[in-house]
Design goal:
Layout: H1 22-29, E1 34-38, E2 44-47, H2 49-55, H3 59-62, H4 67-70, H5 81-85, E3 96-103, E4 109-118, E5 130-139, H6 141-178, H7 184-216, E6 224-226, H8 228-241, E7 249-253, E8 260-262, H9 264-281, E9 286-294, E10 302-309, H10 339-349, E11 353-358, E12 364-371
Parallel strand pairs: 7-9
Antiparallel strand pairs: 1-2, 1-5, 3-4, 4-5, 6-8, 9-10, 10-12, 11-12
Helix pairs in contact: 6-7, 7-10, 8-9, 9-10
């Protein structure tokens, strides 16, 4: 919060108004984060609803009092933050403090960032006395959840890597030490196992990269004409070639599926993950249905709908909202729990939506709808 601009009709000296300004209070109360503003004397002139919720201090108890008394911040080393930083008499060139953890006297942890509004003092950048101290407050729960998520990701990755790497290390060490003791068939079996475990590690790394791209919004889409039924046939053929019985899979493709310009690799990844999920967690025949549809909205355009169904127990309605979260796993544990999260990210990157429900013959049905028609200009 380095720079605060006055709204039209409001002078910089009157920025954010007085404590009694109804409009200012209403606007401040709409903010999702806590907002506290202190004037040039250090007295609180704005204390919004979110700040009251985070600190358990009523606005009427804060307004007009010194901000250091209302928010007696201490850092992790138990130092008085106000004395340590000295915002009103410290460096005249200071414009902000990046977000950091500070603590109230009752132990409440808050993520605090501070911006300075100064007189311009005849210079381009304000370097005069502090006119306003603008403090933003956020609860530490969000950061704690993020840290738990990262810790779980590290734990999951470590667990998933340990098994294939142990196998690779064991077989390669054995072959190097006792190469001449094994027959060619035995060597081939060991090398095939090493190759399969290397593929497993590669898939895990690919999943992690996909998660990173989804979370950062850097998912690239390379559009081309894609025949979705044909991609589904290839996914099924790959499962059969890997040893699955051919009658375990069924493809139902409508003859009037519209033309789609999508990313072939991402379609393969979506279908592959959904079929893998159906095989691992479902039962019976796995059916892929491809049919025409329409996008949502009054002027919904042409689209293609793809459903992947199984005949297992299905997913209970109360669990349905969770299946696309990171690390969700069904009753049969295994895998990283990232597959469906990645599927949702890929579908959305292609401009589509995905849902989960109950299949007509029981079991789970994952259905995604993607826009069709002419390629984008």
């Amino acid at each position: 919060m380095e720079e605060i601009n006055a709204s039209p009709g409001m002078s910089r000296d009157g920025l954010l108004g007085d404590a009694g300004t109804g409009t200012t209070r209403l606007l401040a109360d709409e903010l999702p984060d806590g907002l506290v503003v202190a004037d040039e004397a250090g007295r609180v002139i704005v204390f919004n609803r979110a700040a009251a919720r985070l600190t358990s201090i009523a606005p009427e108890e804060a307004l007009g009092k010194f901000v250091s008394d209302v928010l007696p911040f201490r850092d992790a080393d138990e130092r008085d933050w106000w004395v340590f930083v000295d915002p009103y008499h410290g460096l005249s060139t200071r414009t902000r403090h990046p977000e950091r953890s500070l603590y109230l006297t009752d132990g409440t942890e808050l993520l605090v960032s501070v911006g300075y509004v100064r007189d311009h003092d005849g210079r381009r950048n304000g370097s005069g006395p502090v006119r306003r101290l603008v403090i933003s407050l956020r609860g530490a729960q969000q950061r704690a959840r993020l840290e738990r998520s990262r810790a779980e990701l590290v734990s999951t990755v470590a667990h998933e890597l340990r098994s294939p790497l142990t196998s690779v290390k064991g077989f390669t060490a054995t072959l190097l030490a006792k190469w001449h003791r094994f027959t060619d068939d035995q060597k081939r079996v060991m090398l095939e196992t090493v190759n399969a475990d290397a593929d497993r590690v590669t898939r895990l790394i690919t999943e992690l990269l996909d998660v990173s791209r989804i979370e950062s919004g850097r998912m690239e889409v390379h559009r081309q004409l894609v025949d979705i039924p044909d991609r589904a046939r290839k996914i099924i053929a790959g499962r059969v070639a890997a040893g699955e019985p051919e009658d375990r899979f069924r493809l139902e493709a409508s003859p009037d599926v519209p033309e789609t310009w999508l990313d072939a690799d991402k379609i393969d990844q979506i279908l592959g993950n959904l079929v893998e999920n159906a095989v691992r967690h479902g039962a019976g025949i796995v059916t892929i249905v491809v049919e025409p549809a329409h996008t949502d909205g009054d002027d919904g355009g042409p689209a293609v709908a793809v459903s992947v169904r199984d005949q297992g127990e299905g997913i209970s309605p109360e669990l349905a909202p969770r299946v696309f979260r990171q690390f969700w796993r069904g009753k049969r544990r295994g895998g990283t729990g990232l597959g469906l999260y990645i599927v949702k990210g890929l579908v959305e990157a292609l401009g589509g939506v995905i849902t989960v429900g109950r299949a007509p013959e029981g079991g789970a049905e994952f259905r995604f709808i993607l826009p069709a028609g002419a390629p984008p200009a």
